[in-house]
Amino acid sequence: MMIATIAKASPRYSTWIYIFGTDTIRVTGEVTGPQGQKRILVDVDALTALQFQRLVVKFSRGWRLPSEQVRNEFLRTRSVPISAEDVTLKPETPHLFA
Description:
Elements: E1 2-6, H1 13-20, E2 24-32, E3 38-43, H2 49-63, H3 67-77, E4 79-83, E5 87-91
Antiparallel strand pairs: 1-2, 1-5, 2-3, 3-4
Helix pairs in contact: 2-3
């Protein structure tokens, strides 16, 4: 797993802070979109119910799709794609004394 930190310089910084409640999120990987844009994949399993709901609302409005369809797709893929330009990535460090 990887950890992504939302860049304060991102034009979407306040949106991501509202959705996640923090500037650090767990991601499962990185992909290239259909037009060559880099995306990171937010780990759905690491989200709270409220974070997940806020993501569904944001994307259903942006994509102009029913919330249920967006929700089902995120649950099917277990990830949510966001722009890699919005974050910096680093490996998740295991806790040695957990």
